[in-house]
From TrEMBL:
It comes from the Bacteria. It comes from Hymenobacter segetis. It holds the Pfam family Lipase_GDSL_2. This is Arylesterase. Residues 6-177 form the SGNH hydrolase-type esterase domain. PROSITE patterns: LIPASE_GDSL_SER (PS01098).
Length: 196
């Protein structure tokens, strides 16, 4: 069996849902149906920032040999307004550490956008932050030649029927769409058709 590590925050963990409803678990079901020799490990931690991920990375890397590493961190950085430079440095550190320890591993980066239009709330400074925040993911993907999921929450963000009551975390139906968004990029890496 080959190992796929999903390394993220509450969006990966499936916050507020049974573990089977998280998008990594949904992708495991897809892998089993084909069948493909991959085991998906969900290392999503609710509330985690890129700095938190950087701190716990070595423990995760020591746990399993890694064949595929899906990096989906940064949402909490954006919500807290952490400087884009810091988020970028932390994510680059994670990419470099995975490549150093598992040079043959495939890596996928999931992009994020700010969850709402910040302009009316704080004028140009916050709107500028939102623009920079969105751009950092594609910049990192291009710099490191990584397969890139442009927006993890595509089709889910802002749709009440696809989110929990908090309006932030995807419900079970929303997690299925996240799984599809990731599979569009991950599937071809595993030599599979892209339909989920």
């Amino acid at each position: 069996m080959k190992n796929i590590i999903f390394f993220g925050d509450s969006l990966t963990a499936g916050h507020g849902l049974p573990a089977a409803n998280s998008f990594p678990s949904i992708l495991q079901q897809r892998l089993d149906e084909h069948p493909l020799p991959y085991k998906a490990y969900n290392y999503g931690v609710s509330g985690e920032t890129s700095a938190g991920g950087r701190q716990r990375l070595s423990a995760v890397l020591a746990r399993h040999p890694i064949d595929v590493f899906v990096l989906a961190l940064g949402a909490n950085d954006g919500i807290r307004g952490i400087p884009v430079r810091e988020t970028t440095q932390n994510l680059q550190f994670i990419i470099d550490a995975v490549r150093r320890q598992y040079p043959q591993a495939q890596m996928v980066l999931a992009g994020l956008e700010f969850p709402f239009d910040l302009g009316p709330l704080g004028g140009h400074r916050l709107a500028h932050y939102a623009t920079e925040f969105k751009a950092l993911f594609r910049t990192l993907a291009d710099k490191n030649s990584l397969p890139f999921v442009p927006f993890l929450l595509q089709g889910v963000l802002g749709r009440r029927e696809l989110n929990l009551a908090d309006g932030v975390h995807p419900n079970a139906a929303g997690q299925r769409i996240l799984a599809e968004n990731v599979w569009q990029v991950l599937g071809p890496l595993l030599q599979q058709p892209v339909s989920l």
